[in-house]
Amino acid sequence: MNPIAEHTLHLDPKVRQEARNRLLSAKGHLEGILKMLEGEPYCVDVLKQIKAVQGALDKVGDLVLKSHLEHHVASAAQRGDTDELVAELMEVLKYR
Amino acid sequence: MNPIAEHTLHLDPKVRQEARNRLLSAKGHLEGILKMLEGEPYCVDVLKQIKAVQGALDKVGDLVLKSHLEHHVASAAQRGDTDELVAELMEVLKYR
Amino acid sequence: MNPIAEHTLHLDPKVRQEARNRLLSAKGHLEGILKMLEGEPYCVDVLKQIKAVQGALDKVGDLVLKSHLEHHVASAAQRGDTDELVAELMEVLKYR
Amino acid sequence: MNPIAEHTLHLDPKVRQEARNRLLSAKGHLEGILKMLEGEPYCVDVLKQIKAVQGALDKVGDLVLKSHLEHHVASAAQRGDTDELVAELMEVLKYR
């Protein structure tokens, strides 16, 4: 359980819904790759499909990140938890 | 249908099996995030889970890429399809 | 001239100094690659050196980003420029 | 000294020249950022410039990688050094 989460910094419900929809679609895409791997696919076709799923996940990450910046990081100085929020954000942005 | 694929440059069966196993595990992880989004998760916890799935997909991509280099690209000069293989590989490596 | 910059959201002087030092070192590294290219280097040795410089630039970017989050983004709600700051930050984080 | 380099797998001279030109331009860009840091720049302007240099280095890396794939990796099966070339290439492509 994340201590900051208990401050009720929950993900915005509208963003949560869009993230769900996009992840469901990414899951469908992943299932397509699994089906592809039951046959005899060409390596590069598999690589392209993996890359497409990665792109979809990047978009979900961007949605969540933008919402987090707007709703939580931008008001950190008011709440007094800037150091914690910035430290954990930097960690999650590494090599993203 | 990829024209080079018809040259029967199929993904190595052992790699195909390992890729399948890892993608099944990534799919399970994705389902976990979907479940998480039914509740009221903290943004950064969602970002961390998405990043973990990305890391798993990176590993599958690496497996397939390594196999492709070993089994297909390394013998391209012998087959005479170097230009096609390198062009499509560069495309798939962009921003990866 | 960036309109937000005029709000005097300048880069923190200590971070600016560390960024300078690290960029000077990256520049020296780059000059080393240029020297290497006067000879007959092996491709992969060049790739490794480029990757090292990229890593050094990533670290400078992280320094500046962390400082920006702490000193400017975290107080955006107080100043009332959250939307602008988040929009430009998302732009710069794309594919980073 | 890289043992494979001694097999005289040198970087193609034309690519070497283009890489040099692009690295010189990247170096000029880096010097511009250093100059910028003597003043009081806005964080995001610094981040954008660092990102631009990274993009320029990515392009140099792509040039060298493409040449390496065409001239060395594609003929690895003929020379019999596939395993070494693929291993070192996978290493350099990690997190690129």
TrEMBL record, chains A, B, C, D:
Specify the species.
Meiothermus taiwanensis
Identify one Pfam family in the record.
Trns_repr_metal
What is this protein called in UniProt?
A: Copper-sensing transcriptional repressor CsoR
InterPro entries referenced in this protein's UniProt entry, alphabetically? Metal_Tscrpt_repr, Metal_Tscrpt_repr_sf
Single GO MF annotation: metal ion binding
Q: Which residues form a coiled coil?
A: none
Query: What keywords were assigned to this record?
Result: Cytoplasm, Metal-binding
What the entry lists under CDD domains is as follows: TthCsoR-like_DUF156 (cd10151)
Q: Is Metal-binding tagged as a keyword? A: yes
Q: How does it assemble?
A: Homodimer.
Please name the Gene3D superfamilies in this protein's record: Metal-sensitive repressor, helix protomer
